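pipeline stage [seq->struct] | target=TetR/AcrR family transcriptional regulator | organism=Paractinoplanes globisporus | residues=237
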Amino acid sequence: MAKRQARFTTQDLEGLPELEDESPALWDGSLGDVPRKLLTSAVRCFASNGFHATTTRDISSAVGLSPGALYVHFPSKEVVLFEIIRTAHQRVLAYVTEPAVLGIEDPVRHLQALVARYTSWHARYHVAARVSQYELAGLSAEHYEEILETRHRTNDVFRAAVERGVTTGAFADVDVKRVSRAILSLGIDLVRWYRRDGTDSPGQLGEFTAQLALKMAMTPDLDLGPAPLGTPAASSA
């Protein structure tokens, strides 16, 4: 951030490059223009001050609305957080399980494409992803359980990809659970530091992380090349 302080005001957050990402494209169009703007504002506020330190006034005033305007569209601040986290988790899961990815028969190329997509998605939506990964404690028990189920499904996708490579002999006899967890961490960790005005594009980070993931699982003679699908910028989910 531009300066260190206990809490950032909405004025402090205006124009900060580290808060620029593609989060506005995540929200369901059926929500309407105002709810989508409120979700985007909440992402920026939660990412900067945390869920508990953010007020409904912060969220609403950033889009030129009165403090009570948020309750016209969402019953509580916690529901706003849940909508952000739910959407992000569902979107990234859908992105890495598209038919074009699932249909890759070669285990090496499949894992490579999977990791490249997962990483580039988190770079493109790094602010919303940061909220989704680090503000889970703000959710109600019921909402947390729903998110946890989606997280388990995502974990299963990666674990299955690594396990298939081990079973077919494409990968070394690695600890599938540990390696898949480490790969997921590589794709997520960037949300703490990534900036859109940095030196690496989401696609470049995706390719780099995919190479690291393969080196965790690879046999010594594995021939690494570019990911087969790339990470098209036009895809938002």
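stage status: PASS
auto-comment: The first helix runs from residue 10 to 13. The CA atoms of residues 53 and 191 lie 20 Å apart.
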